[in-house]
TrEMBL record, chain A:
The chain crosses the membrane at residues 21-43, 63-84, 91-113, 133-149, 161-180, 200-221. NCBIfam families: ccmC. The gene is ccmC. Residues 8-184 form the Cytochrome c assembly protein domain. Belongs to the CcmC/CycZ/HelC family. Required for the export of heme to the periplasm for the biogenesis of c-type cytochromes. GO terms for molecular function: heme binding; heme transmembrane transporter activity. This is Heme exporter protein C. It comes from Nitrosomonas eutropha. One of its GO terms (biological process) is cytochrome complex assembly. The lineage of its organism: Bacteria, Pseudomonadati, Pseudomonadota, Betaproteobacteria, Nitrosomonadales. It holds the Pfam family Cytochrom_C_asm. GO terms for cellular component: plasma membrane.
UniProtKB/TrEMBL annotation, chain B:
This is Heme exporter protein D. It is found in: Cell inner membrane. GO terms for biological process: cytochrome c biosynthetic process; cytochrome complex assembly; heme transport. NCBIfam families: cytochro_ccmD. The chain crosses the membrane at residues 15-37. It comes from the Bacteria. The keyword Transmembrane applies. Keywords: Cell inner membrane, Cell membrane, Cytochrome c-type biogenesis, Membrane, Transmembrane, Transmembrane helix, Transport. It is a single-pass membrane protein. Its main location: membrane. It comes from Nitrosomonas eutropha. Required for the export of heme to the periplasm for the biogenesis of c-type cytochromes. Belongs to the CcmD/CycX/HelD family.
Length: 247, 60
């Protein structure tokens, strides 16, 4: 049996496939969010050092992780689009940027509101915080650059360059707490060590991360579909869509 | 239940401002993103609809 792997690389097929997948991911996002918040507020114990303030972790860590994951995925698809001239990959990259920027902003915001009661300051120019701020600016730069260029093909190429250059920042964020002496605490969860936190705290955090993943998938698929319609509106298949069938 | 009352829950052991300040803004961001996407969709559909109607009327 041969599978046509390139079938869904065509924007038209992807448009319908993505449209069918969105409701499932949206349902999963809501389920994970409800379960994650329940564990976060009603099951996870009070922290012996930070009291209840640590409960910010259930959005702070998932938001920070997502901002980094999404950047790498965005750079990957932008790079594929640049190298192979595949329209859909560049569209996906453009669809990821706003959600990534939103999570980077949330990581910074919740970090500030956690830093104030724990460190006594909203902000310090330390390595972790500064590199995350740079990540936020990279997303904004990618979006403004694409918005400033009228020709989508040139916008994709220019965006891909900024996305690929900026990807060096991601390991800098991740390892910043080891490489420099920072105010930010080290990793609470790593692949090589057992987690340094209570099981309920950890599971709440991981379930909230799953919710953030599902939410991101919904946003990215929906936005990709809109970009497809925007860019392909002069093609036959879009004009053949019946009024109610746009969904 | 680990919270004694509703006000105890909102107080978050004295850190209510910081915890709810974080969660509230997260909620606003998520709702904001959904609203923005909806708006973009509505604008696009309007354009597509106009184009379709003008084709139906025989304009090109």
């Amino acid at each position: 049996m041969t599978i046509n792997w390139f079938k869904y690389a065509s924007p038209a097929s992807f448009y319908f496939l993505a449209g069918r997948m969105v409701p499932y991911f949206a349902t999963l996002a809501i389920i994970f969010l409800v379960v994650g918040l329940y564990i976060g507020f009603f099951v996870a114990p009070t922290d012996f050092q930070q009291g209840e303030a640590y409960r910010i972790i259930f959005i702070h860590v998932p938001a920070a992780w997502m901002s980094m994951f999404l950047y790498v995925i965005m750079a990957f698809w932008a790079g594929v689009g640049l190298a192979f001239n595949t329209r859909l990959s560049s569209m996906v990259a453009s669809a990821i940027a706003p959600t990534g920027a939103m999570f980077a902003f949330l990581a910074l915001w919740t970090g500030a509101w956690w830093g104030k009661p724990m460190w006594g300051t909203w902000w310090v120019w330390d390595a972790r915080l500064t590199s995350e701020l740079i990540l936020f600016f990279l997303y904004i730069g990618f979006m403004s650059l694409q918005a400033a260029i009228d020709d989508p093909k040139r916008a994709d190429k220019a965006g891909a360059v900024i996305a690929l250059v900026g990807v060096v920042n991601v390991p800098i964020i991740y390892f910043s707490v080891q490489w420099w002496n920072t105010l930010h605490q080290g990793a609470s969860v790593s692949l090589v060590q057992s987690p340094k936190m209570a099981t309920a705290m950890l599971s709440g955090m991981l379930i909230m991360t799953l919710a953030a993943w599902m939410y991101s998938i919904v946003m990215i698929l929906t936005r990709t579909r809109l970009i497809i319609l925007e860019r392909e509106r002069h093609t036959a298949w879009v004009s053949e869509l019946k009024e109610g069938v746009l969904e | 239940m680990k919270w004694e009352s509703l006000s105890d829950f909102f107080a978050m052991g004295g850190y209510g401002l910081y915890v709810w300040g974080s969660y509230l803004v997260a909620m606003i961001c998520i709702i904001g993103e959904v609203v923005l996407i909806r708006g973009r969709k509505r604008t696009l559909y309007k354009h597509l609809g106009q184009k379709r109607r003008s084709i139906l009327r025989g304009e090109k």
